[in-house]
Design a protein that fits this description.
Radius of gyration: 37 Å
Structural class: alpha+beta
Distance between the termini: 107 Å
Shape: globular
Helix content: 25-40%
Number of helices: 13
Number of strands: 22
Protein backbone atom coordinates (compact mmCIF):
# COMPACT_ATOMS: atom_id res chain seq x y z
CA UNK A 1 0.00 0.00 0.00
CA UNK A 2 2.82 2.33 0.90
CA UNK A 3 4.66 1.47 -2.31
CA UNK A 4 1.57 2.01 -4.39
CA UNK A 5 1.00 5.40 -2.89
CA UNK A 6 4.60 6.30 -3.48
CA UNK A 7 4.40 5.22 -7.09
CA UNK A 8 1.25 7.17 -7.68
CA UNK A 9 2.74 10.30 -6.15
CA UNK A 10 5.89 9.96 -8.15
CA UNK A 11 4.06 9.41 -11.35
CA UNK A 12 1.92 12.41 -10.73
CA UNK A 13 4.95 14.56 -10.21
CA UNK A 14 6.66 13.22 -13.29
CA UNK A 15 9.83 12.01 -11.44
CA UNK A 16 11.54 8.63 -11.53
CA UNK A 17 10.64 6.17 -8.80
CA UNK A 18 13.65 5.49 -6.54
CA UNK A 19 14.73 1.88 -5.97
CA UNK A 20 13.19 0.24 -2.93
CA UNK A 21 15.38 -0.57 0.07
CA UNK A 22 15.09 -3.75 2.09
CA UNK A 23 12.48 -3.58 4.84
CA UNK A 24 15.15 -3.71 7.54
CA UNK A 25 16.72 -0.44 6.38
CA UNK A 26 15.52 2.91 7.95
CA UNK A 27 13.60 5.12 5.65
CA UNK A 28 15.30 8.52 5.35
CA UNK A 29 13.03 11.45 6.24
CA UNK A 30 12.79 14.53 4.06
CA UNK A 31 12.97 17.96 5.76
CA UNK A 32 9.29 18.45 5.13
CA UNK A 33 8.24 15.04 6.29
CA UNK A 34 6.55 13.85 9.45
CA UNK A 35 9.83 12.66 10.97
CA UNK A 36 11.42 16.13 10.92
CA UNK A 37 8.37 17.67 12.60
CA UNK A 38 8.37 15.00 15.28
CA UNK A 39 12.07 15.53 15.89
CA UNK A 40 11.52 19.26 16.27
CA UNK A 41 8.68 18.72 18.74
CA UNK A 42 10.79 16.34 20.81
CA UNK A 43 13.71 18.78 20.87
CA UNK A 44 11.44 21.69 21.93
CA UNK A 45 9.86 19.61 24.70
CA UNK A 46 13.27 18.76 26.11
CA UNK A 47 14.36 22.42 25.76
CA UNK A 48 11.31 23.71 27.67
CA UNK A 49 11.76 21.11 30.38
CA UNK A 50 15.36 22.27 30.71
CA UNK A 51 14.32 25.94 30.98
CA UNK A 52 11.66 25.10 33.56
CA UNK A 53 14.23 23.22 35.63
CA UNK A 54 16.61 26.17 35.48
CA UNK A 55 13.86 28.57 36.58
CA UNK A 56 12.84 26.24 39.38
CA UNK A 57 16.44 26.06 40.51
CA UNK A 58 16.72 29.86 40.56
CA UNK A 59 13.54 30.14 42.63
CA UNK A 60 14.88 27.53 45.02
CA UNK A 61 18.16 29.39 45.51
CA UNK A 62 16.38 32.75 45.87
CA UNK A 63 13.91 31.35 48.39
CA UNK A 64 16.63 29.79 50.51
CA UNK A 65 18.66 33.01 50.49
CA UNK A 66 15.56 35.04 51.37
CA UNK A 67 14.79 32.78 54.29
CA UNK A 68 18.39 33.09 55.50
CA UNK A 69 18.24 36.89 55.28
CA UNK A 70 14.89 36.94 57.06
CA UNK A 71 16.17 34.70 59.80
CA UNK A 72 19.28 36.80 60.16
CA UNK A 73 17.15 39.96 60.34
CA UNK A 74 14.88 38.44 62.96
CA UNK A 75 17.89 37.24 64.95
CA UNK A 76 19.45 40.69 64.75
CA UNK A 77 16.17 42.31 65.80
CA UNK A 78 15.77 39.99 68.74
CA UNK A 79 19.38 40.56 69.76
CA UNK A 80 18.90 44.33 69.54
CA UNK A 81 15.84 44.11 71.77
CA UNK A 82 17.74 42.27 74.47
CA UNK A 83 19.33 44.55 77.09
CA UNK A 84 23.09 44.72 77.04
CA UNK A 85 25.59 45.59 79.71
CA UNK A 86 26.43 48.82 77.96
CA UNK A 87 22.87 50.10 78.20
CA UNK A 88 19.39 49.88 76.65
CA UNK A 89 18.89 48.92 73.03
CA UNK A 90 18.84 51.82 70.60
CA UNK A 91 15.42 53.04 69.57
CA UNK A 92 14.08 52.50 66.07
CA UNK A 93 15.61 54.95 63.58
CA UNK A 94 13.27 57.86 63.02
CA UNK A 95 13.76 57.53 59.26
CA UNK A 96 11.66 54.36 59.44
CA UNK A 97 8.80 56.12 61.25
CA UNK A 98 5.82 57.23 59.18
CA UNK A 99 3.37 59.60 60.84
CA UNK A 100 -0.19 58.35 60.68
CA UNK A 101 -2.56 61.01 59.38
CA UNK A 102 -6.28 60.54 59.88
CA UNK A 103 -8.42 61.04 56.78
CA UNK A 104 -11.30 63.51 57.00
CA UNK A 105 -13.16 62.02 54.00
CA UNK A 106 -15.69 64.89 53.85
CA UNK A 107 -17.23 67.51 56.14
CA UNK A 108 -19.78 65.84 58.38
CA UNK A 109 -18.27 62.38 58.03
CA UNK A 110 -18.47 60.38 61.28
CA UNK A 111 -16.07 57.59 62.17
CA UNK A 112 -15.90 55.50 65.30
CA UNK A 113 -12.75 55.49 67.41
CA UNK A 114 -11.83 53.30 70.38
CA UNK A 115 -10.13 55.44 73.02
CA UNK A 116 -11.11 53.79 76.31
CA UNK A 117 -12.11 50.21 77.14
CA UNK A 118 -15.76 49.25 76.62
CA UNK A 119 -16.63 52.53 74.90
CA UNK A 120 -16.71 53.79 71.33
CA UNK A 121 -16.43 57.51 70.59
CA UNK A 122 -17.74 59.21 67.48
CA UNK A 123 -15.36 61.55 65.66
CA UNK A 124 -16.89 64.00 63.23
CA UNK A 125 -15.03 65.89 60.49
CA UNK A 126 -15.62 69.63 60.85
CA UNK A 127 -13.40 70.82 57.99
CA UNK A 128 -10.82 69.58 55.52
CA UNK A 129 -8.78 72.81 55.45
CA UNK A 130 -7.54 72.51 58.12
CA UNK A 131 -8.12 68.84 58.81
CA UNK A 132 -10.30 69.32 61.89
CA UNK A 133 -12.26 66.82 63.99
CA UNK A 134 -14.65 66.95 66.96
CA UNK A 135 -15.02 64.16 69.56
CA UNK A 136 -17.89 64.65 72.05
CA UNK A 137 -17.43 63.01 75.45
CA UNK A 138 -13.66 62.74 75.16
CA UNK A 139 -13.37 63.70 78.85
CA UNK A 140 -15.77 62.74 81.61
CA UNK A 141 -17.24 65.32 83.99
CA UNK A 142 -14.97 64.08 86.78
CA UNK A 143 -11.88 64.40 84.56
CA UNK A 144 -12.83 67.98 83.63
CA UNK A 145 -13.29 68.82 87.30
CA UNK A 146 -9.94 67.29 88.30
CA UNK A 147 -8.01 69.16 85.60
CA UNK A 148 -9.50 72.50 86.63
CA UNK A 149 -8.78 71.82 90.31
CA UNK A 150 -5.18 70.82 89.61
CA UNK A 151 -4.68 74.02 87.57
CA UNK A 152 -6.06 76.14 90.41
CA UNK A 153 -3.86 74.38 92.95
CA UNK A 154 -0.76 75.08 90.88
CA UNK A 155 -1.79 78.67 90.18
CA UNK A 156 -2.47 80.45 86.90
CA UNK A 157 -0.39 83.25 85.41
CA UNK A 158 -1.12 86.01 82.91
CA UNK A 159 -0.95 84.60 79.40
CA UNK A 160 1.07 87.43 77.87
CA UNK A 161 3.26 90.41 78.47
CA UNK A 162 2.20 93.85 77.43
CA UNK A 163 4.91 94.19 74.79
CA UNK A 164 7.74 92.00 73.62
CA UNK A 165 11.20 93.45 74.09
CA UNK A 166 14.10 92.77 71.83
CA UNK A 167 12.64 93.76 68.46
CA UNK A 168 15.38 96.32 67.89
CA UNK A 169 18.04 93.76 68.82
CA UNK A 170 16.48 91.24 66.45
CA UNK A 171 16.60 93.69 63.57
CA UNK A 172 20.25 94.42 64.33
CA UNK A 173 21.06 90.71 64.52
CA UNK A 174 19.44 90.16 61.13
CA UNK A 175 21.31 93.19 59.83
CA UNK A 176 18.21 94.55 58.07
CA UNK A 177 18.18 98.12 56.84
CA UNK A 178 15.02 100.29 57.05
CA UNK A 179 14.62 99.85 53.30
CA UNK A 180 14.68 96.06 53.61
CA UNK A 181 12.16 96.10 56.46
CA UNK A 182 9.94 98.44 54.45
CA UNK A 183 10.01 96.08 51.46
CA UNK A 184 9.11 93.14 53.69
CA UNK A 185 6.07 95.00 55.01
CA UNK A 186 5.05 96.33 51.59
CA UNK A 187 3.16 93.24 50.46
CA UNK A 188 1.84 94.65 47.17
CA UNK A 189 5.14 96.43 46.49
CA UNK A 190 3.50 99.75 45.62
CA UNK A 191 6.04 101.81 47.58
CA UNK A 192 3.57 102.70 50.33
CA UNK A 193 2.44 100.97 53.51
CA UNK A 194 -1.33 100.65 53.84
CA UNK A 195 -3.01 100.24 57.20
CA UNK A 196 -3.72 96.53 56.67
CA UNK A 197 -0.07 95.86 55.79
CA UNK A 198 1.07 97.37 59.08
CA UNK A 199 -1.64 95.54 61.02
CA UNK A 200 -0.86 92.15 59.50
CA UNK A 201 2.80 92.28 60.46
CA UNK A 202 2.28 93.81 63.88
CA UNK A 203 0.59 90.63 65.12
CA UNK A 204 3.37 88.11 64.71
CA UNK A 205 4.15 88.07 68.44
CA UNK A 206 2.23 88.80 71.62
CA UNK A 207 1.58 92.42 72.32
CA UNK A 208 -1.06 95.06 71.86
CA UNK A 209 -3.82 94.36 69.36
CA UNK A 210 -3.70 97.24 66.91
CA UNK A 211 -6.82 98.38 65.10
CA UNK A 212 -7.09 100.81 62.17
CA UNK A 213 -8.24 103.45 64.67
CA UNK A 214 -5.15 102.78 66.81
CA UNK A 215 -2.87 103.25 63.83
CA UNK A 216 -4.42 106.55 62.85
CA UNK A 217 -4.05 107.72 66.43
CA UNK A 218 -0.42 106.63 66.48
CA UNK A 219 0.32 108.32 63.16
CA UNK A 220 -1.06 111.56 64.55
CA UNK A 221 0.74 111.22 67.89
CA UNK A 222 4.12 110.42 66.32
CA UNK A 223 3.55 112.85 63.44
CA UNK A 224 4.51 110.02 61.10
CA UNK A 225 1.87 110.53 58.40
CA UNK A 226 2.61 114.11 57.46
CA UNK A 227 0.22 114.29 54.50
CA UNK A 228 -2.60 112.58 56.46
CA UNK A 229 -3.48 110.01 53.78
CA UNK A 230 -3.16 106.96 56.11
CA UNK A 231 -0.19 105.76 54.04
CA UNK A 232 3.47 105.60 55.02
CA UNK A 233 6.17 106.30 52.49
CA UNK A 234 9.70 105.00 52.94
CA UNK A 235 10.86 108.40 54.23
CA UNK A 236 8.04 108.51 56.77
CA UNK A 237 8.72 104.92 57.82
CA UNK A 238 12.39 105.66 58.51
CA UNK A 239 11.34 108.02 61.28
CA UNK A 240 9.78 105.15 63.28
CA UNK A 241 11.45 102.48 65.41
CA UNK A 242 10.32 98.86 65.37
CA UNK A 243 8.52 99.17 68.71
CA UNK A 244 7.22 102.70 68.17
CA UNK A 245 3.56 101.74 67.73
CA UNK A 246 3.15 99.57 70.79
CA UNK A 247 5.32 101.73 73.04
CA UNK A 248 3.25 104.76 72.10
CA UNK A 249 0.08 102.96 73.22
CA UNK A 250 1.77 101.81 76.43
CA UNK A 251 2.48 105.41 77.30
CA UNK A 252 -1.17 106.25 76.67
CA UNK A 253 -2.36 103.32 78.77
CA UNK A 254 -3.56 99.88 77.64
CA UNK A 255 -6.64 97.95 78.70
CA UNK A 256 -6.73 94.15 78.89
CA UNK A 257 -9.23 94.13 76.06
CA UNK A 258 -6.55 95.67 73.83
CA UNK A 259 -4.18 92.72 74.26
CA UNK A 260 -3.75 89.98 71.68
CA UNK A 261 -5.20 87.65 74.30
CA UNK A 262 -6.80 88.12 77.63
CA UNK A 263 -6.54 84.99 79.77
CA UNK A 264 -4.61 83.18 82.49
CA UNK A 265 -2.94 79.78 82.16
CA UNK A 266 -0.69 77.14 83.72
CA UNK A 267 1.09 73.92 82.71
CA UNK A 268 0.43 70.45 84.14
CA UNK A 269 3.06 67.71 84.03
CA UNK A 270 1.79 64.42 82.53
CA UNK A 271 4.75 62.08 82.96
CA UNK A 272 5.52 59.41 85.57
CA UNK A 273 4.23 60.34 88.98
CA UNK A 274 1.63 62.77 87.63
CA UNK A 275 -2.04 62.53 88.60
CA UNK A 276 -3.63 59.46 87.01
CA UNK A 277 -6.21 61.57 85.18
CA UNK A 278 -3.44 63.53 83.45
CA UNK A 279 -1.66 60.33 82.44
CA UNK A 280 -4.92 58.86 81.15
CA UNK A 281 -5.54 61.94 79.00
CA UNK A 282 -2.09 61.67 77.46
CA UNK A 283 -2.59 57.98 76.70
CA UNK A 284 -5.97 58.75 75.13
CA UNK A 285 -4.42 61.46 72.96
CA UNK A 286 -1.83 58.94 71.79
CA UNK A 287 -4.57 56.52 70.72
CA UNK A 288 -6.56 59.33 69.09
CA UNK A 289 -3.70 60.72 67.01
CA UNK A 290 -2.21 57.25 66.29
CA UNK A 291 1.29 58.66 66.68
CA UNK A 292 4.27 56.87 68.24
CA UNK A 293 4.03 57.22 72.04
CA UNK A 294 7.59 58.63 72.20
CA UNK A 295 6.54 61.67 70.16
CA UNK A 296 3.65 62.38 72.52
CA UNK A 297 5.79 61.79 75.62
CA UNK A 298 8.42 64.28 74.44
CA UNK A 299 5.89 67.01 73.64
CA UNK A 300 4.76 69.93 75.77
CA UNK A 301 2.80 69.31 78.97
CA UNK A 302 -0.91 70.02 79.22
CA UNK A 303 -1.76 73.71 79.16
CA UNK A 304 -4.88 74.79 81.07
CA UNK A 305 -6.39 78.20 80.26
CA UNK A 306 -9.12 80.23 81.96
CA UNK A 307 -10.94 83.08 80.25
CA UNK A 308 -12.97 85.38 82.46
CA UNK A 309 -15.91 87.36 81.10
CA UNK A 310 -14.48 89.61 78.41
CA UNK A 311 -11.58 87.22 77.76
CA UNK A 312 -10.55 86.45 74.21
CA UNK A 313 -7.71 85.30 71.97
CA UNK A 314 -7.43 86.97 68.59
CA UNK A 315 -6.77 84.96 65.42
CA UNK A 316 -3.40 83.17 65.36
CA UNK A 317 -1.57 79.99 64.35
CA UNK A 318 -0.39 77.60 67.04
CA UNK A 319 2.85 77.11 65.14
CA UNK A 320 4.69 79.17 62.59
CA UNK A 321 6.16 78.18 59.23
CA UNK A 322 9.51 76.43 59.38
CA UNK A 323 12.24 77.61 57.02
CA UNK A 324 15.81 76.28 56.75
CA UNK A 325 17.01 79.00 59.13
CA UNK A 326 14.18 78.39 61.63
CA UNK A 327 14.70 76.35 64.80
CA UNK A 328 12.00 74.43 66.64
CA UNK A 329 11.77 75.26 70.33
CA UNK A 330 11.89 71.66 71.52
CA UNK A 331 14.86 70.63 69.33
CA UNK A 332 16.90 73.84 69.20
CA UNK A 333 19.51 72.64 71.71
CA UNK A 334 19.84 69.31 69.94
CA UNK A 335 20.25 71.10 66.62
CA UNK A 336 23.32 72.88 68.04
CA UNK A 337 22.71 75.94 65.89
CA UNK A 338 22.13 79.60 66.59
CA UNK A 339 19.23 81.35 64.88
CA UNK A 340 17.00 84.33 65.70
CA UNK A 341 13.96 82.51 64.27
CA UNK A 342 12.23 80.04 66.52
CA UNK A 343 8.78 78.44 66.60
CA UNK A 344 7.07 75.74 68.63
CA UNK A 345 6.59 73.23 65.77
CA UNK A 346 3.23 72.02 67.04
CA UNK A 347 2.19 69.38 64.54
CA UNK A 348 -1.19 68.69 66.17
CA UNK A 349 -3.40 70.68 68.52
CA UNK A 350 -5.88 68.83 70.76
CA UNK A 351 -8.22 71.29 72.49
CA UNK A 352 -10.44 70.16 75.39
CA UNK A 353 -13.46 72.10 76.64
CA UNK A 354 -13.53 71.71 80.42
CA UNK A 355 -16.88 73.47 80.86
CA UNK A 356 -19.85 74.69 78.86
CA UNK A 357 -19.72 78.47 78.48
CA UNK A 358 -22.85 80.50 79.20
CA UNK A 359 -22.20 83.04 76.45
CA UNK A 360 -19.61 83.38 73.68
CA UNK A 361 -16.20 81.72 73.92
CA UNK A 362 -16.49 79.78 70.67
CA UNK A 363 -13.35 78.63 68.87
CA UNK A 364 -13.41 80.39 65.50
CA UNK A 365 -11.70 79.29 62.29
CA UNK A 366 -12.00 82.36 60.04
CA UNK A 367 -10.83 80.76 56.77
CA UNK A 368 -11.73 77.10 57.28
CA UNK A 369 -12.38 75.40 53.92
CA UNK A 370 -11.82 78.65 52.03
CA UNK A 371 -10.95 78.20 48.38
CA UNK A 372 -7.76 80.21 48.81
CA UNK A 373 -5.73 81.77 51.59
CA UNK A 374 -4.46 85.32 51.28
CA UNK A 375 -3.00 87.03 54.32
CA UNK A 376 -3.82 90.49 53.01
CA UNK A 377 -7.49 89.63 52.44
CA UNK A 378 -7.93 88.89 56.16
CA UNK A 379 -8.38 92.64 56.62
CA UNK A 380 -10.74 94.17 54.06
CA UNK A 381 -13.33 96.95 54.05
CA UNK A 382 -12.74 97.68 57.74
CA UNK A 383 -13.50 94.02 58.59
CA UNK A 384 -10.65 92.29 60.40
CA UNK A 385 -11.30 88.53 60.44
CA UNK A 386 -8.57 88.10 63.06
CA UNK A 387 -10.44 90.30 65.52
CA UNK A 388 -12.35 87.84 67.71
CA UNK A 389 -13.92 90.63 69.78
CA UNK A 390 -15.66 92.22 66.81
CA UNK A 391 -15.91 89.77 63.93
CA UNK A 392 -16.23 86.23 65.25
CA UNK A 393 -19.61 85.98 63.53
CA UNK A 394 -17.87 86.39 60.18
CA UNK A 395 -15.68 83.29 60.60
CA UNK A 396 -16.33 80.35 58.31
CA UNK A 397 -16.54 77.93 61.23
CA UNK A 398 -17.22 78.28 64.95
CA UNK A 399 -17.12 75.48 67.54
CA UNK A 400 -19.27 76.01 70.62
CA UNK A 401 -17.66 74.94 73.92
CA UNK A 402 -19.28 71.85 75.39
CA UNK A 403 -17.96 70.19 78.55
CA UNK A 404 -15.88 67.08 77.80
CA UNK A 405 -15.71 67.67 74.03
CA UNK A 406 -12.35 67.64 72.29
CA UNK A 407 -11.43 69.10 68.93
CA UNK A 408 -8.15 68.44 67.22
CA UNK A 409 -6.52 69.58 64.04
CA UNK A 410 -3.26 69.40 62.11
CA UNK A 411 -1.20 72.60 62.01
CA UNK A 412 0.98 71.21 59.23
CA UNK A 413 0.38 69.42 55.97
CA UNK A 414 2.00 66.12 55.09
CA UNK A 415 5.19 66.16 53.03
CA UNK A 416 3.87 63.20 51.02
CA UNK A 417 6.54 60.92 52.47
CA UNK A 418 5.02 60.23 55.87
CA UNK A 419 6.52 63.23 57.66
CA UNK A 420 5.70 66.87 58.45
CA UNK A 421 5.30 69.23 55.51
CA UNK A 422 4.47 72.93 55.18
CA UNK A 423 2.37 74.90 57.62
CA UNK A 424 -1.38 74.65 57.01
CA UNK A 425 -2.33 78.31 56.86
CA UNK A 426 -6.02 77.41 57.07
CA UNK A 427 -5.41 76.34 60.70
CA UNK A 428 -5.77 80.01 61.67
CA UNK A 429 -8.08 80.18 64.71
CA UNK A 430 -8.97 82.25 67.75
CA UNK A 431 -11.09 82.35 70.87
CA UNK A 432 -14.22 84.49 70.60
CA UNK A 433 -14.85 86.92 73.43
CA UNK A 434 -16.61 85.41 76.45
CA UNK A 435 -19.79 87.46 76.85
CA UNK A 436 -21.13 85.67 79.91
CA UNK A 437 -19.56 83.37 82.51
CA UNK A 438 -16.11 81.74 82.49
CA UNK A 439 -14.42 79.54 79.92
CA UNK A 440 -11.99 76.71 80.82
CA UNK A 441 -10.01 74.86 78.15
CA UNK A 442 -6.92 72.67 78.00
CA UNK A 443 -4.45 72.27 75.14
CA UNK A 444 -2.28 69.28 74.31
CA UNK A 445 0.24 69.97 71.58
CA UNK A 446 2.26 67.31 69.78
CA UNK A 447 5.67 68.77 68.94
CA UNK A 448 7.41 67.35 65.86
CA UNK A 449 10.29 68.96 64.00
CA UNK A 450 9.69 69.02 60.22
CA UNK A 451 13.41 68.28 59.93
CA UNK A 452 13.43 64.60 60.94
CA UNK A 453 17.22 64.54 61.44
CA UNK A 454 16.86 67.16 64.17
CA UNK A 455 13.93 65.29 65.70
CA UNK A 456 15.93 62.04 65.64
CA UNK A 457 18.93 63.68 67.28
CA UNK A 458 16.73 65.21 69.95
CA UNK A 459 15.12 61.86 70.78
CA UNK A 460 18.50 60.15 70.75
CA UNK A 461 20.00 62.68 73.16
CA UNK A 462 17.04 62.39 75.51
CA UNK A 463 17.12 58.57 75.48
CA UNK A 464 20.83 58.54 76.32
CA UNK A 465 20.46 60.60 79.50
CA UNK A 466 19.17 59.58 82.94
CA UNK A 467 15.57 60.61 83.40
CA UNK A 468 16.17 63.17 86.14
CA UNK A 469 19.60 64.42 85.11
CA UNK A 470 20.21 67.57 83.14
CA UNK A 471 23.45 67.76 81.16
CA UNK A 472 24.58 71.27 80.27
CA UNK A 473 21.08 72.66 80.46
CA UNK A 474 19.50 70.19 78.05
CA UNK A 475 15.82 69.73 78.95
CA UNK A 476 15.60 65.98 79.39
CA UNK A 477 12.10 66.06 80.77
CA UNK A 478 9.81 67.89 78.33
CA UNK A 479 7.34 68.73 81.07
CA UNK A 480 9.98 70.61 83.05
CA UNK A 481 10.89 73.22 80.45
CA UNK A 482 11.23 76.76 81.62
CA UNK A 483 8.32 79.03 80.91
CA UNK A 484 10.06 80.73 77.99
CA UNK A 485 10.25 77.39 76.18
CA UNK A 486 6.49 77.33 75.69
CA UNK A 487 5.98 79.95 73.04
CA UNK A 488 2.48 81.31 72.69
CA UNK A 489 1.94 81.92 69.02
Amino acid sequence: MRNQDTSDDTAASGSTTPPLRPPSDRVPCNKTGVCSRSYFVVVMVFFHVYIINVIALLFYVHYNNGQEDANQSLDAASRSQQPTESGPAPSKPLRDVSLTRIEGIRVGHVQEVSLVPSKVHEMRTLSLKPLLFEIPGFLSEDECRVVMQLAQLKGLMESQLMVQDGQEELAKELNLSPEEIFNLLDINQDGQLQLHEILTHSRVRDGIWLTPENLKEIYAGLKADKDGNDLLSLEEFKLLSNDAFQRFLLQRGVKRSQLVRNSRHTWLYQGKGAHQVLQDIKARVTRLTRLPPALVDLSEPLQVVRYEEGGHYHGHHDSGPVYPETACTHTRLAANTSTPFETSCRYITVLFYLNSVEGGGETAFPVADNRTYDEVSLIQNNVDLLDTRRNCDKSNLKVKPSKGTAVFWYNYLSDGKGWVGDQDEYALHGGCVVTRGTKWVANKWINIDPNYQRQARYQQLVSQQPEDEDDEGFPLNPDQHSSDTHQEL
